[in-house]
Amino acid sequence: MLKIQAESNVPTEYGEFRMIAFAEDQDDWMPHMAIVAKNTNFSQPVNVRFHSECITGEVFHSKKCECGQQLDRAMKFIQENGGIIVYLRQEGRNIGIINKLKAYALQEQGFDTVEANLKLGLPADDRNFDVAIEILNILNVKSVNLLTNNPEKLKFVKESNILLNKRIPLQMDSTKESESYLKVKKDYFGHLLDDQNEIL
Ligand SMILES: [Zn+2]
């Protein structure tokens, strides 16, 4: 069972957040994280972003995906409006960094992001957001406004004990390098790449 292993306030470029590490035991070197803005009002629907780790995009500013940009926008939004980012250790839609780089190598040969995963014998998306729901329950969140374009994340919340109040879209600018990736997200995964707030 997940537990809060440690927490502390951390100042960032976007302001201060409460950073909370969740793991089954304290020796886990890759705990899931929640970062909580100080002005979060838990008696109202809480703005929440489920964000899966992407070392290439977030740390090294890869242009192949928009994860870094999404994380930055979510941090800024949540700092201004209150809320929580649940940061999940699900690198490469949970195939890990080694497989992700193997998939990128296949993409250099012309396969798209889904085809490359399937060629490696891996699922197109191996993520499960139950752990994010578990974290929200530990934090005592009852109702959320989910910052996402991903219908799969909406589905996990709808099927949980947490109320989905509305979706807040995260619109990203595509680059020459990320265009085909965003197209697959839209066509294959059904991502909602518009900029309208959807009341659910
Ligand atoms: Zn990424």
UniProtKB/TrEMBL annotation:
Annotated keywords: GTP-binding, Hydrolase, Metal-binding, Nucleotide-binding, Riboflavin biosynthesis, Zinc
Superkingdom in the source lineage: Bacteria
Active site: 125 (proton acceptor), 127 (nucleophile)
Cofactor(s) needed for function: Zn(2+)
Pathway, per record: Cofactor biosynthesis; riboflavin biosynthesis; 5-amino-6-(D-ribitylamino)uracil from GTP: step 1/4
Record's catalysed reaction(s): GTP + 4 H2O = 2,5-diamino-6-hydroxy-4-(5-phosphoribosylamino)-pyrimidine + formate + 2 phosphate + 3 H(+)
Cited Gene3D superfamilies: GTP cyclohydrolase II
Binding-site residues for GTP, renumbered to this chain: 49-53, 70, 91-93, 113, 148, 153
Cross-referenced InterPro entries: GTP_cyclohydro_II (IPR032677), RibA (IPR000926), RibA-like_sf (IPR036144)
GO molecular function: GTP binding; GTP cyclohydrolase II activity; zinc ion binding
GTP cyclohydrolase II domain segment(s): 6-169
Cofactor note: Binds 1 zinc ion per subunit.
An individual GO BP term: riboflavin biosynthetic process
Enzyme Commission code(s) on record: 3.5.4.25
GO cellular component: cytosol
Residues reported to bind Zn(2+): 54, 65, 67
Protein role: Catalyzes the conversion of GTP to 2,5-diamino-6-ribosylamino-4(3H)-pyrimidinone 5'-phosphate (DARP), formate and pyrophosphate.
Family per record: Belongs to the GTP cyclohydrolase II family.
Protein name stated in the entry: GTP cyclohydrolase-2
Species this chain originates from: Kaistella carnis
